[in-house]
Amino acid sequence: MTDSRNSRDETLLTPAEWKVMKVVWRHRYRGCAARDVYTETARTEGWAPTTTKSILKRLVDKGHLSVRQVGNAYLYEPAGSAVKSLLAAADSLIENLLEGTSGLVISHMLERTRLTDDELARLRDLIDRRTADRPEDEKDPKNA
């Protein structure tokens, strides 16, 4: 059987990888020692150091982390920003949605998210622009 995932999907983060990346992103300005990741994931997830080490290796292999040795310590640094990774995950979600379900998913996300007044204003502006830019044949006949 052929694996239908493309190479981009293979670089997306798994739930466990997200947890490790969040630890590394918090330490991004000085590099994150492997020991710090082991300690935090043991405390928050109950993971053994070997589990975390495997995830760190996978993240390096996928290109999400770089690693350098300083003395006896290994320091991990993110290859990209948290926002870039979130947007890639959102793009993958959009690409994999069933036709006609994007509005439902967006509504669900809005209901589960607390937004600032500025964020709400940006969304209103985006909705207004998208509504104005749609061709007539794509507009909802109920609202015409």
- What is the share of helical residues? 55-70%
Gap between N and C termini: 48 Å
Given the structure, what is the number of helices?
7
Shape: elongated
Number of strand elements: 3
Task: Tell me the domain tally.
Answer: 2
| Rg, alpha carbons | 20 Å
CATH superfamily caption of the largest domain: Winged helix-like DNA-binding domain superfamily/Winged helix DNA-binding domain
Reported by name, the CATH topology of the largest domain is Arc Repressor Mutant, subunit A
Range of strand content: 5-15%
Structural class from helices and strands?
mainly alpha
* Elements, N to C (H/E): HHEHHEEHHH
Overall mean confidence score, pLDDT: 85
Summarize the biggest pleated sheet. Answer: 3 strands, antiparallel
Low-confidence stretches: 1-7
Strand order of the largest sheet: 1-3-2
Q: What is the architecture of the largest domain at the second tier of CATH?
A: Orthogonal Bundle
CATH class of the largest domain: Mainly Alpha
Description:
With 144 residues, this protein is mainly alpha-helical. The protein folds into two domains: 72 residues, Winged helix-like DNA-binding domain superfamily/Winged helix DNA-binding domain (Arc Repressor Mutant, subunit A, Orthogonal Bundle), CATH 1.10.10; 46 residues, no CATH class. Helix content is 59%, strand content 10%. A hairpin with a 2-residue loop joins strand 2 and strand 3. The chain starts with 6 loop residues before the first helix and ends in an 11-residue tail after the last helix.
